[in-house]
């Protein structure tokens, strides 16, 4: 991050959003633990590098990037900055109405009120948001695939962690279904 941006209050803003970041990290840890662990490894590796220590101590999200989108509709699109198995997280806030989120590849269209949190693989799921009435801000969190790679965190390591998680979940489901008594 450029010093000028850092000096303009970015660090204060990051600390002011500490609780929100903790909630988002916790949600991701539950819904996608492999990806969460991969992000933690990447962030911790960045903390070890001399050129990034000051910035990363205030960047508490496991995501490597965040974009603020204010008062605009978002045409249907895909996000090719991330890998297929990763989730982007979208948090929408403000005082607005009449917004709708659409995911045409899933046949999904729904109201998109303030306080909505969406986690999706933006790489494979096309999505967009209609215009709204009022003031809307969307915080879009994502993992920029180049960051973990540049700090030596292998994508294959991240994929292995994700596969291990899904293998454990499947084994638990199988174990539970085998232990269900017949009625």
From TrEMBL:
Gene3D superfamilies: 3.60.130.30. Residues 19-144 form the 2OGFeDO JBP1/TET oxygenase domain. Its cofactor is Fe(2+). InterPro entries: 2OGFeDO_JBP1/TET_oxygenase_dom. Keywords: Dioxygenase, Iron, Metal-binding, Oxidoreductase. Pfam families: Tet_JBP. It comes from the Eukaryota. GO terms for molecular function: dioxygenase activity; metal ion binding. Signal peptide: none annotated. The keyword Signal does not apply. This is 2OGFeDO JBP1/TET oxygenase domain-containing protein. The lineage of its organism: Eukaryota, Fungi, Dikarya, Basidiomycota, Agaricomycotina.
């Amino acid at each position: 991050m450029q010093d000028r941006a850092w000096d303009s209050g970015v660090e204060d803003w990051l600390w002011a959003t500490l609780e929100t970041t903790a909630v988002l990290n916790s949600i991701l840890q539950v819904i996608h633990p492999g990806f969460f662990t991969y992000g933690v490894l990447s962030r911790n590796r960045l903390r070890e590098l001399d050129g990034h220590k000051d910035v990363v101590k205030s960047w508490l999200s496991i995501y490597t990037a965040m974009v603020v989108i204010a008062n605009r509709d978002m045409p249907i699109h895909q996000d090719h900055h991330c890998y297929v198995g990763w989730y982007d997280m979208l948090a929408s806030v403000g005082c607005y109405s009449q917004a709708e989120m659409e995911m045409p590849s899933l046949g999904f269209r729904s109201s998109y009120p303030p306080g909505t949190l969406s986690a999706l693989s933006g790489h494979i799921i096309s999505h967009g948001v209609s215009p709204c009435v009022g003031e809307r801000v969307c915080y879009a969190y994502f993992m920029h695939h180049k960051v973990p790679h540049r700090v030596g965190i292998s994508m294959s390591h991240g994929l292995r962690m994700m596969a291990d998680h899904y293998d454990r979940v499947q084994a638990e489901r199988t174990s539970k279904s085998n232990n269900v008594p017949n009625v």
